[in-house]
Amino acid sequence: MASVSPAPDSTPSALPPGEWDRLTRWVKLYSWAQVALVGAVIVGAHFFPLIGKPWSTCLAGGTGPVDLWCVLLFHLYEVPLVALVAYNAYWGFTQLTRAKLPYYVCLTALQLVMLFMFATFESPIVLAALARPAPTREIVVLYFAFTGMIAGSGLGFYTVFGRLLPVLFAGQREQGR
């Protein structure tokens, strides 16, 4: 019976001492930043509606009752992004190994692209809230959510291009020798 050999390790075996540990610590820190960002956005977005102050963005005619289709549309965009960020954080906390580094790099790059795209979706909402007489609480939450998404994109960009890809490419160069 033929045995299946494990997948080759795709990171260099000759990493400088402690480099893999530094990388995994960075990934865990990045995962905590993702959890903090998502948690803050979820609390900020839902706190006021839960205490009876709905978002003016989803009020019918700007002053009428809450338009449930509007709320559904926002959640149609937001829930998959939150699930992707949570899944990426889960991988960063528990699943990252040298052999799974290529998958984590792709997952983090996908999440980075999605976060940046969502930030571009969010920017007109922030500008519209500034242009119309939106409550200050909404403008503050929208501004900090947008700023957090841009900061998260920058942190993700650094994580992928400054930390993960150099280790991954070093492993591929070493395997080619």
Describe the model.
By secondary structure, the protein is mainly alpha-helical. The chain has one domain. It is 75% helix and 0% strand. It contains four helices and no strands. The protein has helices at 19-50, 68-95, 101-131, 136-176. The longest helix has 41 residues, at 136-176. The two termini are 31 Å apart. The model has no long low-confidence stretch (mean pLDDT 86).
What share of residues are in beta strands? Answer: under 5%
Order of helices and strands: HHHH
Number of helices: 4
Return the average pLDDT rounded to an integer: 86
Radius of gyration, taken over Cα atoms and rounded to an integer in Å: 21 Å
The best one-word shape is elongated
In total, the number of strands is 0
Structural class: mainly alpha
- Fraction in helix: over 70%
* Largest sheet report: none
Low-confidence stretches: none
The number of distinct structural domains comes to 1
The CA-CA distance between the termini, in Å, is 31 Å
